[in-house]
Structure formats: C-alpha cells, structure tokens
Specification:
The protein is of the alpha/beta class. The chain has three domains: 8-180, P-loop containing nucleotide triphosphate hydrolases (Rossmann fold, 3-Layer(aba) Sandwich), CATH 3.40.50.300; 182-253, Orthogonal Bundle (Helicase, Ruva Protein, domain 3), CATH 1.10.8; 264-335, Homeodomain-like (Arc Repressor Mutant, subunit A), CATH 1.10.10.60. The protein is 50% helix and 10% strand. Strand 6 and strand 7 (141-142) form a beta hairpin.
Length: 335
C-alpha cells in the first residue's frame, strides 16, 4: 500500500495533471460534496482521499475506510450499517457499522464498482438524506459524514452495462478527480525512489544507498503497470536485499517482451501469408505479456490479477494455461 505519510509535495510532484488536482484540493476540501477518485490500481487514490480529509473542516473527525471487494456481499450491509441485537443468529449485541463510526468525519469507499445493485440502492439513500437503518432496527439513524469513493474501473461503462446504478453514479460523481498512471508522470519517479529508500532504510534499520544512474534510468523508462505500489515494492526489496540485481531483472522484462512482440514476418512479393493467423498469434502474445506484467505487479496473486484485469478468476486460469504462463523460478509462486 502507498504510504499515507507521503508529503503533499511528493504526492503531487511536478506533473501538470497532478498539479491541476493539487490546485483544486483546498477548495474541494472546504466543501462537503461527495468526491469520486478514479485511476488505475496503485496510483494513490487512498492517499489523495486522506489528504482531502486532512484539509477539510472535519479533519479532527475519523477517517474510516471500507474496501468493497474485501468484504463478502452477504456481510457488507452489516459491516456498513451495523446491526441490532437479535437481528440474526449470532447477533448477541448491538454493533456499530462503518457509517456510524465515520460520523463527524469521512467515509472512504474503496473500489465502489464492486458493490452489488442491492447495496448500491441502500448507499444511495444514505447519500440522499444522511439516513440509514441498521439491520434489525425499527428506526432510522442520521449521520453527518463526508463520502469519498474510489474506483479503478470505468463507472460510465458499468452504468451502460447495467452493473452500476445511474442515480448513484451521479450522486457520488459531484466532483471527479482522475489520477494519472505513473507512466504519465515519470518526472516524479526519482523523488518517489528517494522517499521509499529513506522510508524503508529507517523502518528496517538498513543502509541501502541511492540507486545507480543506470538503474534509475531503467526506473524512468519502465511503464509501471502496478504504478506507485509496484515501485514501492521494488524499492522495498532493494532496501532489504541491498542488491540492484534483485530488481533490475523485473525492469528489463519490458524491453525484451516488447521486442518479441514487435517482430514481424518477412514479406516478399512471392510470399503467401495468413493475415488472420499472424494477427491472432500477435494478439495472443500481446495478451500474454499484459497478463505477465499484471501478475508481477500483484506479486503473482491470481485473484488480485483477475480483478485488476476485469476478468473472472476462471477466465484468468484458462488464459494462463492457454498462454503457457508459468510462475518464475526465482522464488515467486502463484497465490
């Protein structure tokens, strides 16, 4: 996870897109309107949500996070709204939900696109009038809470597909902030590297030196499918092992696979080729490269990789078999 102690200067860096977001931060924090933060996994959506909270009038109140995909749908309502004693088997006492815990502060709903339609309707009521009903309760309760949502998916496409309520989309999308991927803000990579080296040197009592110019150049050329989170994990590995060789191989994969994909068959006037066959093969290889990159970014965790690719776990297993993608032999393994 991206370190929440990142300074504001480091979070926004020098890229024009991030500077534009920073210029809106103070005005946005002063209001209590819902905010939707969009961006790829690992771009720092939670960090930005915490900054908005820290700059807001409710900064002294709680910041409560709920990760929508991490909680089974059958338990999500009780986790969000709480329940009364006797509401169901095992409910031996009253329990406050995350909404009540966030009263007077900020409720951060991470990856809100993962909510099912039934729960979306109940969240809509909370956004409309600040009222909700715990499971088993007879009376509604009211709260004063700032709602910030985040997603790595295209919610407009989800609305068009019927997977996300249009009325809820408009409620949470009063102000939308789009975080650029790290590959679009490469001027900020050196500062992130320096920060994480200092951070993990201190945390692990290590003395790793600054990266060599050659390796830092690879960092800036790399396309970072896992964004800041991937960069942080690589730097952490470097600090612990104090070895540039331990991380350079991961950065060199891009140039090697790109070269393989770019190879085209020789074409002569007398040659006969199957356009369909060649195109299919190149698309298959490109898909294989994307899957490998995403697996690397998520530590070879197949569940997280399938979610990041917006495909089912079963579909990922089929593609791994079809593309003959094996776990590396350097100690990493599928999870």
């Amino acid at each position: 996870m991206v370190d929440p102690r990142l300074s504001e200067d480091l979070v926004f860096g020098r890229s024009p897109a991030m500077r534009g977001i920073q210029s809106r931060l103070r005005a946005l924090a002063r209001s209590n309107v819902p905010v939707l933060i969009q961006g790829e996994s690992g771009t720092g959506k939670e960090v930005l949500a915490r900054l908005i909270h820290a700059c807001s009038e409710v900064h002294a109140g709680p910041f409560v996070k709920i990760s929508c995909p991490a909680i089974p749908s059958g338990l999500f309502e009780s986790e969000l709204f709480g329940y009364e004693r006797g509401a169901f088997t095992g409910a031996n006492s009253n329990r406050l939900g995350r909404v009540s815990l966030a009263n007077g502060g900020t409720l951060f709903l991470d990856e809100i696109a993962e909510l099912n339609l039934g729960l979306q309707a109940k969240l809509l009521q909370l956004l409309q009038d600040g009222r909700f009903c715990p499971i088993g309760a007879r009376e509604e309760k009211s709260v004063e809470v700032r709602i910030i949502c985040a997603t790595n998916r295209n919610l407009e496409a989800a609305v068009a597909d019927g997977a996300f309520r249009q009325d809820l989309f408009y409620r949470i999308n009063v102000v939308s902030l789009l975080l650029p991927p790290l590959r679009h803000r490469k001027e900020d990579v050196p500062e992130f590297v320096r920060h994480f080296i200092d951070l993990y040197n201190s945390e692990f009592n290590c003395s790793a030196k600054s990266l060599s110019k050659q390796l830092l150049g690879l960092f800036q050329e790399y396309h970072w499918p896992g964004n800041i989170r991937q960069l942080e994990n690589l730097v952490k590995r470097y600090v612990i092992l104090e070895s540039e060789e331990a991380i350079s191989a991961d950065l060199l994969v891009k140039s090697e696979t790109t070269h393989t994909f770019a190879e085209l068959p020789e074409v002569t006037r007398s040659a006969s080729i199957s356009l369909k066959k060649i195109t299919k093969g190149m698309v298959r290889e490109f898909e294989r490269q994307i899957i490998i990159k995403m697996l690397q970014a998520h530590g070879w965790n197949r569940v997280e990789t399938a979610r990041a690719l917006n495909i089912s776990y079963r579909a990922l297993l089929y593609k791994l078999k079809d593309c003959q993608v094996l776990a590396p032999q350097n100690g990493a393994a599928y999870r």
